[in-house]
Amino acid sequence: MVGFKLSAMAQLKLDVLTEGRRKYDRIHSLVEQYGAANTGEDALMRALSRAAADVARLFMNNGYGIMADHSNQIAMLAKRGVGKQLKLRTFREATASVRAAMDHTEKMIVDEEKKAHEAPADG
Questions:
Q1: Which phi and psi (to 5°) does residue 20 adopt?
Q2: CB atoms closer than 10 angstroms to residue 69
Q3: Can you tell me the distance from the alpha carbon of 107 to that of 31, in angstroms, rounded to the nearest whole number?
Q4: What is the DSSP letter of 5?
Q5: In 10 A of CB 116, how many CB atoms?
Q6: pLDDT of residue 121
Q7: Are 101 and 66 in contact (CB under 8 A)?
Q8: CB 67 within 8 A of CB 98
Q9: Longest C-alpha distance within the chain, in Å?
Q10: CA 39 → CA 74, 85, 118, distances in Å?
Q11: Whole-angstrom Cα distance, residue 105 to residue 122?
């Protein structure tokens, strides 16, 4: 991925994002199943709520508050009685937002590591 060795802290941060990305793949799958489903929507909503709450805890425990907030929004909306199209649109927007935030955060971590590796060359 990168042409230099990452620090232990950067590796831990990237591991959290990798786990979050894996869990968001599950959330995305549940959202799309919900969009295509004609029956069994309640079971999908329960699974979606659990998955979103789980990833929200992961992000909150690791200091990614914005991503945790969007995940909690998904979990709460899955429990509410709103129209299917509104839910689906909101789920998709929140999922896309968190994925973009994960990509951005990952890029920032790598950029910080690049700067840290370049800094000693000045002295």
A1: -60, -40
A2: 15
A3: 26
A4: P
A5: 13
A6: 53
A7: yes
A8: yes
A9: 66
A10: 20, 15, 56
A11: 27
CA dihedral 31, 32, 34, 38 (to 10 degrees): 170
Query: What is d(CA 95, CA 73) in angstroms, rounded to the nearest whole number?
Result: 10
pLDDT tens track of the chain, all 123 residues? 556 788 899 899 999 999 999 999 999 999 999 999 988 889 999 999 999 999 999 999 999 999 999 999 999 999 988 889 999 999 999 999 999 999 999 999 999 988 887 765 544
The whole-number pLDDT of residue 59 equals 96
Q: Which two tokens stand for residue 95?
A: 């999922």
Please give the Cα distance from 117 to 7 (Å, whole number). 10
| Residue 86 CB partners (closer than 8 Å, separation 6+) | none
